[in-house]
Structure formats: C-alpha cells, structure tokens
Write a structure and sequence with these properties.
The protein is mainly α. It has one domain. Helices cover 80% and strands 0% of the residues. It is built from 6 helices and no strands.
C-alpha cells in the first residue's frame, strides 16, 4: 500500500499540475499503474473467495486508498465511465453492500485495464 500512496501523490499532482503539461507528462508511469492493477486483482480475488470484505480488516482499511486512487485516475484521464464505477464502489463499500460492490469493482477494473492497455501496451 505504500506504493499505492505514492501513486496517489503522483496522480494528485497530475490533476492539480500546470494546465500546459503535455498528455505524455500527464500519464503516470506504467509501473505505478501496474501497482494499482495488482491491488485491484487482489481485491477481486478476495471477493471471489469470501464474498465480502470484513469490516476493520486490512483490506477494508486499504480500500479507501484504492478507491481514491481510482477516482483520481478517472479524473486525470477524464474518464466518466470509470468515475461512475468508482463512485458506485465508494457507496457500496460505505454501505458494506458486497452484492453490489463486486460488479462495481469488476467494472472499474475493466475501465482501468482499458486505460492501462491504451497507455502501457507498446
């Protein structure tokens, strides 16, 4: 999660940075996006196994950072679809509604994968 925090700082600087920056400079490094991809995969895998995230667990505590990272990425990439899925994730996580959370995180993972493939598959 330390690397995810670093990614959040990078993404935050992208969103708040100078408006004249080039599109290439606006994109976080592929290695940073790979960290977020592993986090998403781990959460989806845990949900597949257990069907829920236990309140107060390490995963529950880190979920906020993952959701925030995805929200910042969606804003930085001006991706409304990803932003919508992240908002659904946030709401269903807050409500601990795992039945609705799982499809939302899977949809967000697909949106994230699209961004990753577009920018990191040379």
């Amino acid at each position: 999660m330390r690397r995810l925090r670093r990614l959040l700082v990078i993404l935050g600087l992208m969103v708040c940075g100078p408006a004249g920056a080039s599109a290439a400079a606006d994109m976080p490094a592929c290695r940073d996006l790979a960290v977020m991809a592993r986090e998403l995969d781990a959460v989806v895998e845990m949900l597949d196994r257990s069907g829920k995230i236990n309140e107060g667990s390490a995963l529950d505590r880190n979920m906020g950072e993952l959701i925030e990272g995805l929200a910042v990425l969606a804003e930085a990439m001006d991706d409304e679809d990803l932003g919508l899925q992240v908002e659904i994730m946030r709401q269903t996580w807050d409500d601990m509604d795992w039945k609705r959370f799982k499809p939302a995180i899977e949809a967000a993972a697909r949106g994230f994968e699209r961004i990753y493939r577009l920018h990191c598959s040379y």
